[in-house]
Design goal:
Length: 537
């Protein structure tokens, strides 16, 4: 009888803890790592020869949108993540989660990403949602946050003003229920319609609930452009008042107008850390953002609901003001690519400049018309980030890497919806770019930022490391061949170099071939235990 279900032999183990790599074998029994060392005399049902390969923990993606883009259901294998080596994803990001649902209109927030009329919802609470997902096969492990926008949609009658005391109490109750059911914390997107008018009082009140459960408060900043400093100040004010653990999603400074504030932003973050605030952030290694086109509108034009915003676009005077505000952003229209649109799909893959030339309209008028015709549901790739800023934050001890993407299967992707390349290539690109090309990080440092550090931030005690008695989420890859292939014009390409991927001890990728078996689990927050990151890089 074999000693192990799987033995990974002869590989260089990078354990996720930023320790030097070591030549060792890894023995797996069921879903657990049982032994690490010289297992040359042992036998296994499956033996993996990892000679000249690196053996690392499965990567953990803290900013994923597979749930709110519905691919968790439509593409449960999450192949574009598995081919990167991602074995665990966190959903419920950027203010929107799939639970709790109390008013019946929370799911409407998802119509910008898929046709909500085509889905059936048979849950209300977070507990019911997680139970339902648990019944379904899933390629990766899934955990969730609770969306602040989701709570507000279900609790606040007038979204144009701060919540009343009773509404805050209702949100606190819903959040407490969600956290008790296994949610890992609260996420925000304070620039979006349903969160714009949220007052500090309600945010601090909810942050205190998160603090009590030792969860995280995860921010999509209110503004990532010219108002980045006030947005950071708001986050740190809430963090200070509640002593909550704060994580900033997809941190970036968008546009040249914001780039000059880079040093001040970094100083603010590091002063917060010096003042004993718990602050971390994630980044992705791309200079093009992927976001909703309507977020380029000035803040006053985004106030109110969908009908109010569309009304602003149709009003001649307001339209002129919006056009002027867009001109002031000094956008690179020649590099702004339409990724998806609700109605006029002929524009997908074209730049704003190309559409301007072909229609003989100003680029600003093209943007306004696109939003109007497609009822605001247009996404773009926008060249807006400074490469040097990404390089700088990649080396910070409080930063991790995340996709801000979606798990796809190329066979079922929509032809007129271009995914951002980060959904297919983030983690291999990090290894190729920061480790192999720039030599800004060692293999051990980069993998620490993909495994143990995000596990510590989230509070996953038995994932993110290769260690005895931890779950067998493991990747085996060729350091010479690891690379991303996805591009903005041809994004539906899986990454290369991942030869074996194990999820909970089950084989998801073997010898460079995808398995039909899905081994992901639903992860629920249970304990109030966490190691918070300290400077090790």
């Amino acid at each position: 009888m074999a000693s192990y279900s799987i033995i990974i032999k002869n590989g260089y183990v990078i354990d996720g803890k930023n320790s030097p790599r070591v030549r060792a074998d890894v023995g797996i029994k069921g879903n657990i790592i049982a032994d690490i060392g010289d297992l040359s005399q042992e036998t296994a049902d499956v033996e993996i020869d990892a000679r000249d390969r690196y053996v690392a923990p499965g990567f953990i993606d803290l900013t994923s949108h597979s749930d709110t883009h519905w691919t968790l259901f439509d593409a449960p294998g999450q192949e574009s993540f598995l081919w990167q080596g991602v074995t665990t994803i966190l959903g419920g990001n950027c203010g929107t989660s799939l639970a709790p649902l109390v008013s019946g209109n929370e799911i409407d927030a998802l119509q910008k990403w898929f046709d909500v009329s085509s889905v059936n919802i048979n849950w209300q609470s977070t507990a019911e949602f997680l139970d339902e997902i648990e019944k379904r096969p899933l390629g990766v492990n899934f955990a969730t946050l609770t969306g602040f926008g989701t709570l507000r949609r279900g609790s606040v009658k007038n979204i144009d003003q701060g919540a009343s005391t009773g509404e805050i109490d209702k949100m606190r109750f819903l959040l407490e229920e969600a956290l008790s059911a296994g949610s890992f914390g609260l996420s925000t997107s304070l620039g979006r319609v349903h969160e714009q008018s949220a007052g500090t009082e309600e945010l601090v009140s909810l942050a205190e609930v998160v603090k009590k459960s030792d969860g995280i408060l995860k921010y999509h900043l209110r503004d990532e452009g010219s108002d980045i400093l006030p947005s950071l100040s708001e986050v740190f004010s809430i963090t200070r008042a509640s002593d909550v653990r704060t994580h900033i999603s997809h941190f970036k400074l968008i546009g040249k107008g914001a780039w000059k504030m880079f040093n001040d932003a970094m100083i603010m973050i590091e002063q917060g850390l010096q003042n004993n605030m718990h602050i971390t952030l994630d980044i992705y290694p791309y200079t093009k953002t992927g976001s909703s086109l309507y977020l380029l509108l000035p803040s006053w034009a985004r106030e109110g609901g969908r009908e109010e915003i569309l009304g602003n676009l149709e009003d001649p005077e307001k339209r002129a003001l919006i056009s002027s505000a867009l001109k002031e952003l000094t956008l690179h229209y020649d590099q702004m690519i339409i990724a998806s649109s609700f109605r006029d799909q002929s524009v997908v893959g074209k730049t704003i400049e190309e559409l301007s030339v072909s229609t003989n309209l100003s680029s600003e008028d093209v943007i306004i018309n696109l939003l109007n015709v497609n009822e605001l549901t247009v996404t773009i790739f926008n060249e807006a980030l400074h490469e040097a800023h990404i390089d700088m934050f990649a080396k910070k001890y409080y930063s991790v890497f995340a996709t801000d993407g979606v798990g796809y299967n190329v066979a079922f992707s929509k032809p007129n919806d271009l995914p951002h390349p980060r959904s297919f290539g983030t983690f291999p690109k990090v290894l190729n770019y920061f480790v192999k090309e720039k030599e800004a990080l060692t293999w051990e440092e980069a993998i620490y930022k993909m495994t143990k550090l995000p596990a510590d931030i989230l509070g996953l005690e038995r994932r993110g490391v290769i260690k005895k008695n931890t779950f067998a989420d493991i990747v085996v890859f060729d350091p010479e061949k690891i690379r991303d292939k996805s591009t903005y014009t041809n994004p539906l390409q899986y990454s290369e170099g991942m030869e074996w991927v194990l999820v909970n001890g089950g084989i998801a990728i073997s010898e460079g071939a995808i398995s039909n078996e899905l081994h992901g689990k639903i992860l629920r927050k249970e304990k109030n235990n966490r190691e918070w990151p300290v400077s090790t890089i």
